[in-house]
Write a structure and sequence with these properties.
It contains seven helices and six strands. It is of the alpha+beta class and 210 residues long. The chain has one domain: 2-Layer Sandwich (Gyrase A, domain 2), CATH 3.30.1360.170. The strands form two sheets. Strands 2-3-6-4 form a four-stranded antiparallel β-sheet. Helix 1 crosses helix 2. It is elongated and about 70 Å long. The mean pLDDT is 96.
């Protein structure tokens, strides 16, 4: 059994300033103000269209992220409809195979300290599930049948592609103080990285502590 933390990787090679320039070119069509484009006009233009609520313009750009999380969190992610997803399949992945180390991988719950009784109960339960899963596979049960005992804590990998407007919607919901703690953990981390590499677009979304 392996216990890991959540993580993510931005798949695209992001050039934030280039993204803003493309958005400006698209947005200025609406006003036929292309003649006002300069080397440094994009940031101000995009800032103004976001303030005015003209967010459809930022749909012209997208970002793809590989997210490592538990199955429970992935169920929340895929509820965002304007997106494309490719996810690790428990139907076809046989975790009893050597390439998986013949073990299950679980995401460590952040809300229980490792020294608590709650964490100990969780850990023993995960071990029991792994042992049972492997016994079923060894008896000839197919992975798509054995997966019926797998928990929300099971690690999964999901490739997520959203346009920038949908990423804004995602962050507003999933970094909110009342979002699930494990969902907030990964969403806040991605938002902070987006802010570093893409100017303007996400600056107005504040992370509020629960």
């Amino acid at each position: 059994m392996k216990i890991i933390k959540t993580g993510f990787e931005i798949i695209d090679d992001i050039n934030g300033n280039k993204i803003l320039k493309k958005i400006e070119r698209a947005g200025r069509i609406c006003y036929k103000s292309e003649d006002r484009i300069t080397d440094d006009s994009a940031k101000k233009f995009v800032t103004n269209i976001l303030k005015s609520g003209h967010e459809s313009v930022i749909e012209h750009e997208k970002v793809t992220v590989r997210i490592i999380c538990d199955r429970g969190v992935s169920h929340e992610i895929v509820r965002h409809r304007i997106a494309s997803y490719s996810q690790e399949s428990t139907r076809y992945c046989n975790y009893n195979q050597e390439k998986f180390g013949k073990e299950l991988t679980f995401i460590q719950p952040l809300f229980w300290d490792e020294n608590t009784e709650e964490y100990s109960i969780w850990l023993k339960t995960m071990q029991m599930i792994e042992d049972t899963y492997n016994k079923l596979i060894e008896k000839g049960v197919q992975p798509q049948e054995a997966r019926s005992i797998l928990p929300n804590s099971l690690k999964t990998e999901i490739i997520v592609t959203m346009n920038l407007r949908e990423w804004r919607h995602f962050f507003k919901l999933r970094t909110a103080s009342n979002a699930h703690p494990q969902m907030r953990e990964v969403a806040c981390a991605i938002l902070e990285e987006f802010r570093k590499i893409i100017p303007v677009i996400f600056d107005d979304i504040n992370i509020v502590s629960p």
